[in-house]
Each structure stands twice: as structure tokens, then as C-alpha cells.
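2024-03-11 09:14:02 DEBUG pipeline.ingest accepted 1 chain
2024-03-11 09:14:02 DEBUG pipeline.ingest length=110
2024-03-11 09:14:03 DEBUG pipeline.predict start
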Amino acid sequence: MDDISIGLLKGIKKSFSSGVENSKTINDLLKKLDDKKADYEDAQKYAIEVGELLSKSFEENIDSASLPNGKMYYNIAKKVVDPELKEGFEKVSDYSTKVQKIVNEMQRLA
């Protein structure tokens, strides 16, 4: 039996990357971050958008027809879902850290 997790992961990564790249919300929020005008509300919006894009990439690439016996087995989930959730977490964490630095700098200057 072939390891379907490789193909699933590749499809999910492609879908998620494309979604992030083409997201007006993400691009607008990254611009605010670059302009040092992002705040906590922006970090929340970023987290929501990343979560929605991840969800969409999972929905587009995983269905019962693509899984053995129509089931998501632990080993498949571990290879497919975990890495993408970690990537999403890292994106949100990175954005939030940068927002916190901006907020700290604004407080220091005030």
C-alpha cells in the first residue's frame, strides 16, 4: 500500500501557501506590520485568517475518498495535519511577536 500522506501533505501545503499568498486580508495585515501600525486586533484578524486558510486547505485536499477505508488514521494525521498546524501556529506566533514589539515601542515612546 502506498503512503498517501505524502500526496496529501503536498496538496495541503500548496493550497495553504497559495491561499496565504493570495489573501487580501493577509497582505493588508502584513503591510500594516511593515508600516509598524499593527495592533492586537490585527494579530487576531491574522490568526483567524490563517486558521480559515488552513481549514480550507484541509477541506480541499482531504475527504473520505482520498483516505484508506474512508478513515483518517493516526499515522496519516500525524504526517499530514500536525506539520500544517505547526506551520500555522508559527505564522501566527511570529506575527503576534512582531505586533507586541510594535506595541512595546509605542509605549516606550509615549
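2024-03-11 09:14:41 DEBUG pipeline.report The first helix runs from residue 4 to 22.
2024-03-11 09:14:41 DEBUG pipeline.predict end
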